[in-house]
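>> Question from a student workshop board

For tomorrow's exercise we were told to take the sequence and the ligand below, predict the bound structure, and bring the output to class. My setup keeps failing. Could a helper post the expected result so I can at least see what it should look like? The ligand is zinc ion.
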Amino acid sequence: MKRILFIILLLSFSLYLRGEIKVAATIFPLYDMVREIAGDKAEVKLIVPPGASPHLFGFTPGKLQDLQGSRIIFCIGNGADDWVKKVKDALRGTKIFTVDKGISLIPAGRSFKGNITYNPHYWLGIPEAVIISRNIKNVLQAEDPDNASFYQANFAKFSRRLLAAQERYIKMLSPYKNRKIVTFHAAWVYFARFLNLQILGTFEPSGTGEPSPRHIANLTKKIRKYGVKVIFIEPQLNSRVLDAFVKDTGLKIKILDPLGGIGGRESYLKLMDYNVKEVQEALESAR
Ligand SMILES: [Zn+2]
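>> Workshop helper replied:
Here is what the output should look like for this input. Compare the format with yours to find the bug.
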């Protein structure tokens, strides 16, 4: 028994010496970016499980237990995962870090108090992903200065891959003149910005509220006028409210995935590959 205890002590001490730190991230794309920058120098935990929506997430006691000892939780902020701030008291010594520093956020509307709110889905732009990764790198360097050059090298490698992907995506979509798309919820404004796509409309503009008949009539008019053939739904959100609309407009349904973490989309870049390919197919069908 004593020997086992001794071994456990030795193991935890060697982990401590290796300097492996414990961190977490709220959503899968952010988790994957943290993994890229941290490499084997940190244990990284994902909070919102693949298949779930951060808009509808709630903490369980088990999940909180799992996060004990985390030095940093990386989050998106701006309303996407603000529930993370509620656990601050439960997790002593954990810093919550919002990764939006330096990003030119797109206004979404106004809050009840009259303040401007911003669209939180900025991780879906590659230029933004580069900035997020740099922010992650800076935080890890400050938290774990012994491995600063390791984090720097990982950031350099990852940002090169991001920029190469961006160039590839822009090329993939360059043949299409009609660049208008219709989405289910307002998650794709940053994606559209770097790919030079035009979001003609969103079925559900205000998160989870039901669209008004007037909103649907306007959207239908635009879809007919511009010859849009496809509406993009998302795997994490219930789109049964679309049934009548899709029947009326004759739109085909395709899937854009803002979160990934499931088969074929088990990295941020694979997720983006998937999304750009879906858009390419939609534009092809409206040519
Ligand atoms: Zn969203």
